[in-house]
Amino acid sequence: LIKLCHGAVPQTQRRLATSISALTSRTVKQAPTAAKGSTSFQAIQEERREQAERSVLISCPAKINENKFLDELTKHGTIDKHFFYNSFGTYAVVEFSSRESIASLKESTNIPAVQHEAAVPFKSRLLSLKQTGSGSHPTPNFQEQSPPSINDLIKLLSEQDSIDEQLQSLTKALELSDENISLRFLVCSLLRDIAGAYFPECIIRPFGSTVNSFGKLGCDLDMFLDLDDIYASNQKTGSGLSLEYQVKRGASERVVTQSILSVIGECVDKFGPGCVGVQKILQARCPLVRFAHQPSGFPCDLTANNRVAMKSSELLFLYGTLDPRVRQLVFSVRCWARVHTITSSIPGAWITNFSLTVMVLFFLQQRSPAILPTLDQLKQLAGPSDKCVIEGNDCTIVSDVSKITMQNNTDTLLKLLQEFFEFYGNFPFKKSSINIRKGKEEIKPETSPLYIQNPFEITLNISKNVNATQLERFVVLCRESAWLLQQGEVLNRSSEQTADSVPAWGFAALLLPSVSSGAGVKSRRKKKLEPASSRIKNLLDSLKIKGGDTAAKKGSA
Ligand code: CTP
Ligand code: MG
């Protein structure tokens, strides 16, 4: 997570943001992975949060007897939902109908007696179940929490009948499952119990790919500590007297955030069961605590006061609901970029998934007719209750999606994919920036190799970290992939298939390592970069002339 720049936030502004979000009633269509029965982004988040508060996470013996397990737990109340998964051991998530069940369950749970060591007697909702005797009983169904391996994915894609079907099945295979999202909210809720010891009104909210509808199984869990409810009550007695809390003061909002995160980080480290490898990264522009939550397997980033990032998660969610091709193209491009190490899980000069997503959105705004509206259009359609200003940034977007008129664009996913690669293979990165607010390229305000305007903090570049080498690798790979997607051997499924394997074709062929190494980009680049690039560019130009309409930009690349 790289979140840029936090200035001091006057309390009144924060309260305004809270009350506006409380007033806002939204009717966004439900994303495929969203909680059932909810309609708006906020309502989905609230419903998930409330479910998580009624849930427990239990480490179980590998040969768990599911019926006996459920019989035991229903002694404490009705169970709404439960599922098992494996992650360095067997775990169960159990959601009760009422919170009283959690209290009852905790009453009958013991602090373990440990030998040679001592235990921190912190009673969390992460429990261990001991079972005496295994007996013979059916194995429960385990929910998968990890993405398929690249080889399995290539196989799955190669079995599809068209490239459009490939992109659709890739999205289904990689997207977060309903259970995985529940587990993510449960981890936030478990951490809230730790932070709640100091700040009972606090909420830990997930943001980023957990909630923006572009999350892939295995992605990190971005969270922020929301303290806004602490400021919510402002009672006047009418007697002319009023009481204030005596508070400790810090030199700035940033300093206070650092102190709070430092203490919460310490508690997570010392008291948080299952939380390992805690690192406090408090000097970053957006201070954070990073750790791994072992029982869920999630790499976690905990920040504070990150409302703007939450709003960009809502914006991405909104874009993702407008047309199914948006998520399908984003998932495919992100997968392609990850396989060819254009993106990385290690922070550095790589393009991030967030940047790539915004690049896809920008490309879809450039189509003729446009597939997605600009951010300015979403703002123009907003009603008075949609007004939202956070830390001085106008984050207003329409909440009523029925006000958004979608244009009739019937491009296939194959066409979009081909033209995405052409578009960025020829984009004038040297002089232009990517701007989804205006929906058009603008002159770069500074010399970063890749300039993508932050949607809400408009003076920031979300891809400031990207260096020229990484951008060049992306451009070359786009050109190679555009070229490959014009070849008959790649476009058509081979008839030479055996009973148990189909040769990789279509999008699956673009995921093969040879695209970026060996026969692909690297070897060609090693020989002579320029002729290879111009050869492909010429080839593409001739294809463009033959193919007629294209959104690819001519000019310097
Ligand atoms: N963010 C931002 N500016 C950046 C980077 C991130 O505003 N330069 C915000 C975005 O809202 C982003 C969130 O922080 O969605 C989380 O960042 P990150 O974890 O890097 O991206 P994700 O969208 O969560 O994607 P991933 O699946 O790679 O975690
Ligand atoms: Mg993330």
UniProtKB/TrEMBL annotation:
One of the record's GO cellular component terms: mitochondrion
Cofactor(s) required, per the database record: Mn(2+); Mg(2+)
Any Pfam family the entry gives: MTPAP-like_central
Keywords from the UniProt entry: Magnesium, Metal-binding, Transferase
UniProt domain RL: residue ranges: 40-109
GO terms, molecular function: metal ion binding; poly(A) RNA polymerase activity
Domain PAP-associated: 415-459
Domain Poly(A) RNA polymerase mitochondrial-like central palm as annotated: residue spans: 163-320
GO BP terms in the entry: RNA 3'-end processing
PANTHER family referenced in this protein's UniProt entry, alphabetically: POLY A POLYMERASE CID PAP -RELATED, POLY(A) RNA POLYMERASE, MITOCHONDRIAL
Protein's recorded name: Poly(A) RNA polymerase, mitochondrial
Source organism of the structure: Triplophysa tibetana
